[in-house]
C-alpha cells in the first residue's frame, strides 16, 4: 500500500476566494478565542455576575439562538448568504461593544441573547458562503482547512488574552471584549470582497416565513438529529473529561491541560488528512460512521479510566480516550459538512443548512446537563450507556442517507433543469454554489 505524503500546500486553499475565506475565518477565530479565554473573568469582575446568573443568562441565550437559527437562514435566501454573514459579523461586533458597558443579569441576558441569535446562525452561513466560494471537488478540502485555521485562531486568541487577564484591570477585561468586536469588523470587511464561483445556483427568493413553512423534509431532520448526537463530543471535551477526571479517577490534575492541548494539536495537524476519508462515493457517510465508532470507543475508555489504582495509568487511559474523541470529532465534522450540503436542494441551501445546524445547537443546550446529571452521575455505566447511543447513531447513518438519496436525486434533476435555463454560455459547467 502506498502512503500518500502530506504537503504543506495541502493546508492552503486552491482558489483565491478560498484563501480569502480562510484568512477571514482565522481572524474570526482569534476574536472568538480571545473572548472564550477571558469571558468567565469578565462576567464576574466587570459585569458583576454570580456563577448562577452567568449560567442562567447563557442558558436562556442558547434557547434564543436555537429558535432564531432557521429564520435567519430563511432570510439569507432572500438577501444572499454572504450578505447575511456580513450582517451577522457586524451585528456581533456591535453587541460585543454593548457588552462592555453592561451591568447586572438583565442587561447581560439581553445582550447575550442578541449575540446568541447571530452566533447560532453564523455556522450554517459560514458553510454556505465557503461552499459558494469553492468548486465542488475542493469543497471538503477547503472546509477542512478552515476548521484547521479556526483551531489555530482559538489558540492564538487564548494566548492574547493571557496578559490582559494577568493585569487584573477592568478595562483590560473590557479590552478582551472590544478586541473580539474588532476581529468581527475586520472579518466582515474581508467578506465583502468574496465572490462566488461561476455557475452558482440562484437561491429561491421566498420570504422567511414561506421558506420555513415550506420545509417538510423529515428525512433531513433525522440526519440533523444524528449529527447532533455525534456533536456531543464538544461537551465531552469541555465538561465530561475534566469533571470525570476530577471526581471519578486518580488522574493528576496537572494532566488535564495536556489532554486539552492534545485535542487541539491533533485537530490542527490531522483535520486536512482526515478529510480524505470523505472522498469518493459514500465517503461522507463513511466518515460519519467512523466518527460514531471512535466516539463509542472513547466512551468505553472513559469508563475504564475510573478503574486503575495507578494515577499515571488512569491518565494514560484518559489520554487515549481524548485521542479517540479527537478522531471522532474530525470524522464527524467532515462527514456532517458533506452530507448536510449534498442533501440540501441547490436553491434552498441556507434554510437547509440552518436546519441541519440545529442538531449542534440543541446539543450545546442539552449536552452539559446530560453529561453531568446523567452520564457522570451514573458512573462507568453512564459512559457505557452513552457509548451505546453513539454506536446506534453510527449504525443509523446508512439507512437515513439511503432514505435521502432518492429525494436528493429528484431535487438535483429539478435544479439542473432550471439552472440550465438560466445559465449563460460563459458560466462554468458543474460549478456549485
Kindly state the percentage of residues in helix.
over 70%
Describe the global form.
globular
Number of helices: 14
Class per helix and strand makeup: mainly alpha
Residue stretches low in confidence (pLDDT < 50, at least 5 long) are: 410-433
- Estimated radius of gyration: 22 Å
What is the N-to-C succession of helices and strands? HHHHHHHHHHHHHH
Work out the number of β strands: 0
Beta-strand portion reads: under 5%
Mean pLDDT level: 83
Distance between the termini: 36 Å
Q: Can you summarize the main beta sheet?
A: none
What topology emerges from the helices and strands here?
Layout: H1 16-47, H2 51-79, H3 81-99, H4 105-132, H5 139-166, H6 170-191, H7 208-213, H8 218-230, H9 233-248, H10 256-274, H11 283-304, H12 311-342, H13 349-376, H14 380-422
Helix pairs in contact: 1-5, 1-6, 2-3, 2-4, 2-13, 3-4, 3-6, 4-13, 5-10, 8-12, 8-13, 8-14, 9-12, 9-13, 10-12, 11-12, 11-14
Amino acid at each position: 500500500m502506498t502512503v500518500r505524503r502530506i504537503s504543506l500546500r495541502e493546508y492552503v486553499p486552491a482558489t483565491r476566494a478560498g484563501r480569502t475565506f480562510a484568512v477571514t475565518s482565522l481572524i474570526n477565530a482569534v476574536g472568538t478565542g480571545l473572548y472564550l479565554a477571558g469571558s468567565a473573568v469578565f462576567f464576574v469582575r466587570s459585569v458583576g455576575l454570580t456563577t448562577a446568573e452567568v449560567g442562567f443568562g447563557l442558558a436562556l441565550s442558547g434557547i434564543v439562538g436555537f429558535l432564531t437559527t432557521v429564520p435567519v437562514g430563511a432570510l439569507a435566501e432572500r438577501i444572499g448568504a454572504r450578505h447575511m454573514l456580513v450582517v451577522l459579523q457586524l451585528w456581533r461586533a456591535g453587541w460585543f461593544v454593548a457588552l462592555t458597558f453592561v451591568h447586572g443579569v438583565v442587561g447581560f441576558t439581553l445582550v447575550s441573547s442578541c449575540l446568541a441569535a447571530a452566533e447560532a446562525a453564523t455556522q450554517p452561513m459560514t458553510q454556505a458562503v465557503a461552499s459558494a466560494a469553492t468548486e465542488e471537488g475542493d469543497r471538503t478540502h477547503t472546509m477542512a482547512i478552515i476548521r484547521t485555521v479556526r483551531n489555530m485562531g482559538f489558540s492564538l486568541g487564548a494566548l492574547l488574552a493571557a496578559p490582559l487577564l494577568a493585569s487584573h484591570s477592568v478595562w483590560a477585561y473590557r479590552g478582551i471584549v472590544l478586541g473580539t468586536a474588532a476581529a468581527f469588523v475586520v472579518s466582515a470587511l474581508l467578506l465583502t470582497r468574496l465572490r462566488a464561483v461561476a455557475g452558482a445556483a440562484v437561491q429561491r427568493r421566498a420570504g422567511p416565513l414561506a421558506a420555513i413553512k415550506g420545509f417538510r423534509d423529515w428525512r433531513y431532520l433525522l440526519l440533523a438529529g444524528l449529527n447532533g448526537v455525534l456533536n456531543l463530543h464538544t461537551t465531552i471535551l469541555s465538561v465530561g473529561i475534566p469533571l470525570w477526571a476530577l471526581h471519578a479517577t486518580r488522574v493528576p490534575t496537572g494532566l488535564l491541560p495536556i489532554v486539552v492541548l492534545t485535542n487541539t494539536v491533533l485537530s490542527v495537524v490531522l483535520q486536512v488528512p482526515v478529510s480524505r476519508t470523505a472522498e469518493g462515493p459514500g465517503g461522507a457517510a463513511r466518515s460519519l460512521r467512523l466518527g460514531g465508532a471512535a466516539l463509542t470507543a472513547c466512551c468505553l475508555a472513559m469508563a475504564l479510566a475510573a478503574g486503575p489504582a495507578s494515577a499515571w495509568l488512569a491518565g494514560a487511559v484518559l489520554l487515549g480516550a481524548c485521542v479517540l474523541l479527537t478522531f471522532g470529532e474530525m470524522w464527524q465534522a467532515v462527514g456532517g459538512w458533506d452530507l448536510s450540503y449534498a442533501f440540501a436542494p441547490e436553491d434552498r441551501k441556507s434554510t437547509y443548512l440552518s436546519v441541519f445546524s440545529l442538531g449542534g445547537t440543541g446539543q450545546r443546550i442539552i449536552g452539559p446537563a446530560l453529561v453531568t446529571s446523567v452520564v457522570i452521575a451514573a458512573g462507568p455505566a453512564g459512559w457505557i450507556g452513552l457509548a451505546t447511543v453513539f454506536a446506534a447513531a453510527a449504525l443509523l447513518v446508512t439507512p437515513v442517507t439511503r432514505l435521502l438519496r432518492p429525494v436528493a436525486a429528484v431535487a438535483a434533476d429539478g435544479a439542473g433543469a432550471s439552472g440550465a435555463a438560466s445559465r449563460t454560455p460563459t458560466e462554468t459547467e458543474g460549478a456549485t454554489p
